[in-house]
Amino acid sequence: MIRRKGQFYILETEHTTLILKPETAECVYYGRKIRFCGIAELLAGSERRIVSQPWRGDFTEQNVLLYNADGGFTYDFVYSKGKISAEKPEIAGLPSSYGEGKTLELKFVDGPTKVCLYQYYTVYENSDVIAVSAQLVNQSKKEIRLRRLMSIQLDLPREEAEVISFRGVWGRERHRTVQPITKGIYICDSKKGMSSHECNPFVILKNGTGLYGFNLLYSGNHAEIFESDERGRIRALTGMSDYMFEWKLAPTESFCAPEAVLCYAESEDELSERMHAFVREHIVRGKWKNRERPVLVNNWEGTYFNFDEKKILSIAAAAKEVGAELFVLDDGWFGKRNDDRSSLGDWYDNVEKTGGGLASLAGKIRDLGLAFGIWVEPEMISEDSDLYRSHPNFAMKIPGREPWRIRNQLVLNLADERVQNYVVRAIGDVLSRSGAAYVKWDFNRHFTDCFGKGIVGGEYFHRYLLGYYKVVSKLTKKFPSVLFEGCASGGGRFDLGNLCYFQQYWTSDDTDARERLAIQAGTACGYPQNTMGAHVSAQVNHQTGRRNSFAAQFNVACGGVLGYELDLSALTETERAVIKEQIAFYKDKRKLLQFGKQFRLQAPRAEGFITVSADQSEAIAVVNVTETHPNEPLPFIRFKGLNESAVYSVSVRGRTETVLAGGDVLMRGAIPLFGVFDTEPVQRECGGLFSSMYILKKVKA
Ligand code: DGJ
User: Fold this and answer.
1) DSSP tag of 453
2) Residue 529 C-alpha to ligand 1 middle, in angstroms?
3) Among candidates 295, 274, 189, 312, which has minimal Cα distance to 240?
4) Which of 194, 375, 494 is the best mutation target for the ligand 1 pocket, counting ligand atoms within 8 Å of the beta carbon and taking the most?
5) What is the C-alpha to C-alpha distance for residues 282 and 202, in angstroms, rounded to an integer?
6) How far apart are alpha carbons 655 and 670 in whole angstroms?
7) Judging by DSSP bridges, how do beta strands 504-506 and 483-486 pair with one another?
8) Which of 3, 148, 467, 509 has a Cα at 20 to 30 A from 329?
9) What is the rounded CA–CA span in Å between residue 85 and residue 415?
10) What is the pTM (predicted TM-score) of this model?
11) pLDDT in tens, 574-607
12) β-strands 254-256, 247-249 pairing
């Protein structure tokens, strides 16, 4: 709800309140819901701003940087008017959240130049999230140059604070990282043209009051800046990065910053619960929004580039036998691609490897009773390709300069409309002729050599992103029944912008169950489990060389959307029987596992997750013992999310014993692992990672 009370706007979600005083561009209050908002006057005068005031000596990092119409770079955005509306304004060319929620529009004008700044706040009551965006309009008579337009500026009182960010690298994405904020500036960002493996746009500022979560609906360069300043504030800014950014605005032209989201909670679990609800309800869309996701088998780690029709059909037949529902043909099916040196851009069938083409292979897979899915990497080009030979200017490179190659490939210049059209046509044709029910959209390198003819350098990164969104938006609209999974060398572009088009995202190329614990736990802080692709792979892991049993891998993969990625046709009967039983169990519990409320579990030497049904009548927990030393006390765990006053029956999957325990005991008592249940056989089978799955059912209210 949004209401106006004198000079104040009060924005309320179910559990939080944000009070703004636009006259002074102040954020008067943001936090836990307060009932008596008459105190707003008492809190005003804090100098906590939602818009910077450099003209008035505010040199803390600013939400706007520009070369103004009067030749200077100062501005003084003075509040002009506010409006509450049921309609959320469109954010031109960019993804945006959707659903019921009122929007507050605040207009600020720089008096001498008439440049306008609009801030929009959309309130999603049920998920306790406020979506914020900004737009700058050049109402002056001269060109202006925008150097930065952040989506959110939020000043909070300085208290002991730390930033929790989700950082990593290829194969180790989104590890939860904590950095205390004392004095000065702390930045999380990406300059790679993609949201990146290194630093996710989801960040949390934690202070003595609570936790403030920020995220951005953008898949390109981003920055989250936290400055602890001399005025006793911590300023949080989130938005597009200003790295090499400069945007010219002629008179009457405007620029929209990507939408960002804001969420307050009093614990990390609460914050995640709210972000999950928001992503599920207001970001993910289309036919697959609330549908149970199929169990897939992907051939990548099973064959890499080395396959033919016979091999693929043998894996698909084994996939059908174990109960999988979808077969995904990964890289290597097109052009003359037998390794990563050629053919990107040539989206026509390699007849030899597919045994007569995609349509025929897809048909044979469907005849086996499986849906067919296809891998593509639409934004890339190999120099050894027909596309490059005929259109070298389609590649992102600078004339007269040797381009930097990564994985032997170049990026296509999606800032160019002709290239966008080519990609829509070529990929649309792949989907039509294969009848694919699923697409894995990959992106295997970051940007270098940014250049587009006729595009001013500072505009390049963003123009690419606008082109990219145009392409994904056209293709996802054209194929509304297709389940789209995004991928970027694993989880290099796992962000809210992409989740507006792709219903799920490949979390990481690292499929080692132990490595996945930190990756999935970090990802799940901000994103719900039904957006996270999680696969069981070969028992000797290809990324780490470590051995993980199928049982342990399955347990960990149940924390996301389950898939298998190995040569199933090469397994023994016994191994296939293990997988068959896993898939049958998963399908039975899939609704709970994919759509239940998931909480992370953490204790010394043990971690995992629990997924609880909305009515708290059932739950599945996975607990992994991450370290074992001789003669150490037993590790323990405390469950979460259960009904305190209910009684649950608890059993370990694979065993018959059951104990009864109260929800309160299960959540407050430190339950020794391997104690009551003696999970010894499960442990032995699990090799390195001791992993157990607990099944909880409410027996009494
Ligand atoms: C990188 C992806 O993350 C992998 O899953 C696989 O699809 C390869 N690309 C294929 O080249």
Assistant:
1) T
2) 21
3) 189
4) 375
5) 16
6) 22
7) parallel
8) 467
9) 34
10) 0.97
11) 999 999 999 999 999 999 999 999 999 999 989 9
12) unpaired
